[in-house]
Amino acid sequence: MICLAASLAMVLGIASCAEELSDDKTYRPPKGEPGLGVSFESKYNRYQKGQKHPGQNNAWKVRESWADTVWLNDRTHTQIVVWTNDDDYDGLTYEVSDLTNGSNVIDKSHIKLRFGSYILGDAEPKDCSAPNPRPDMWIADALSDSPVTKVTVDDPIKIWMTIDTPKNAAPGTYTGLFEVKSDGETTHVLDIQLQVANRVLPDVKDWEFHLDLWQFPYALPGQCSPKVEMCSDAYFALMEPIYRKLADAGQKTITTYIKGGVFYSPEDTMVKWTRKSDGTWSFDYTLFDKFVEKMMSWGITKQISCFSLAGWNRSVPYYDEATGSNREMVFVDPTDTSGADQIGGAVYQATWNAFLDSFKEHLNAKGWFSKAVLYMDEIPHEAMREVIRVIREHDSNWKIGLAGSSLDADMEAQMYDYSIFLTRQSQKSTAVRTFYTSCSHIHPNNYVTPQNNPAEMAWMAWHAAGNGYNGYLRWAYDNWRSGDPASARDTGATAGDASMVYYLNKTSNANDVVSSIRLELLREGIQDYEKIRILNDPEVNAFAAGIGETTGSSAAYYVATGEALIAKASVK
């Protein structure tokens, strides 16, 4: 029988069941004081620069063993902190043993060590109108593969341990060791215990959770020196490690730009629009095809989100053959009374009909029409109504998507993919039913601040599981704008709003893409979603149903409690 409190303790870093029953709370000095100290730590504790481990002051806070319950084909994480209270130590090394269960072995090659690297975050979270300048702070969020071999009195080492349990492992209880060595001599040994349940987590490609983190494929190449040409060999070499990490997290959608100026520059388009001298249109899909094909080859295959018949700038940039110049056709909101061309007006409809005729033919030729979704982002209600009308009058078979809120019931019925604002409700009748967080949310969110717990990212999948959603959407996976690879402050919103991975050397030659604690815990939450679905356990389901939108500020508690319930149900 699993002690629920003990399981919860392992992830939150609180007292275990045995400790809770003990009356002996006398202070005990940490083992090895003075000298090196080592302890397991909650994966939900994201350290600030110079922050000490609580075990540096009290041995009750030192955890020399860690246990977890996993499925076959599962991934789990823990954190280890190394500190010194007297002298700096250099030449540290780390070793992990095989995990053994009698004659059964999980080879140590399935255990990965990464090191928490400091990223410039914000001292506190703000909403979309965050003031600038604002106080910053160094926070460990990037997970570097480069070992940290020196620990100083001022700053502990943060080690992120990840175990991938093989699909063909024998169920049972496995044990192993983690060792810290100084100048080749072992100074500390920690115990690992892994309970492998007789249940199998599906492969990532078979997960049902609909993860939709929007890609910004023009952001990084534009910052390289020299600038990297879109969809060139150099471009794909640059972007492959970024998008393979996204695929490994369970991403379902490819973000494509079918016109310029969807979010930023009029030049950022994967479809080249040309208005010919006779007034007809032609469209070049070369970049679109190359990008989609490559993303599919990297494992993102379910959906092609096509942005956008109405976007941030309500215009269609194009090359005008008659004048030999680049021009823009601008459309205004339908509620505008200026008499200008409107979204849904005659010129708008004729222009987009020409594109949709061509695009449909092209998608059918590529075998992609069923995957394509004509996607919009938070456009005004009446503009969305007109966009829907134009699309449906063109062909009722088009799939339509929107990240927005408060559609009328008749409009929602036209949606294939409808992602609503976290605090709003809908009929949830669409094929793809996700929710999203934006810069207006303080908790939960993917912010890099001391107040935002990274467990808030795992919380997203728990909220989806308990509230009738089948996924989560976030507007930016790799929207790097600051040009500083060690900063998460890429836009005017709170740090972390614009990206979830780090490209620590932004040059065309670099291959130094690293994950974040936030992305790892989002992926872990998605694993939980799949387990909840497969187990269909009444106790787990009831708990997930109670994770309402106001619980995000207590994400670490809810996720840890939920994962302990999954562990209990997994070994029944």
What would you say this structure looks like, in words?
With 572 residues, this protein is of the alpha/beta class. The chain is built from twelve helices and 25 strands. The chain is globular.
Compute the CA-based radius of gyration: 26 Å
User: Describe the biggest sheet?
Assistant: 8 strands, parallel
Mean pLDDT: 91
**Beta content:** 25-35%
Question: How many helices does DSSP assign?
Answer: 12
Distance between the termini: 8 Å
Helix/sheet category: alpha/beta
Poorly predicted runs are: 1-28
Strand order of the largest sheet: 12-23-22-21-20-19-16-13
Tell me the helix content: 10-25%
How many runs of DSSP E, i.e. beta strands? 25
How would you sum up the global shape?
globular
Question: Would you spell out the secondary-structure blueprint of this structure?
Answer:
Layout: H1 4-12, H2 17-21, E1 36-41, E2 65-72, E3 75-84, E4 92-96, E5 99-101, E6 104-106, E7 111-122, E8 136-144, E9 157-164, E10 172-182, E11 185-200, E12 210-213, H3 219-223, H4 233-248, E13 253-257, E14 272-275, E15 281-284, H5 286-297, E16 303-307, E17 315-320, E18 325-330, H6 346-366, E19 372-377, H7 381-394, E20 399-403, H8 409-412, E21 417-421, E22 432-436, H9 455-466, E23 471-474, E24 502-503, E25 513-516, H10 517-535, H11 538-545, H12 555-570
Helix pairs in contact: 1-12, 9-10, 9-11, 9-12, 10-12, 11-12
Summary?
Helix content is 25%, strand content 27%. With 572 residues, it is an alpha/beta fold. Strands 12-23-22-21-20-19-16-13 form an eight-stranded parallel β-sheet, with helices on one face. A seven-stranded antiparallel β-sheet has the order 1-3-9-7-8-25-24. Strands 2-11-10-4 form a four-stranded mixed β-sheet, with no helix packed on it.
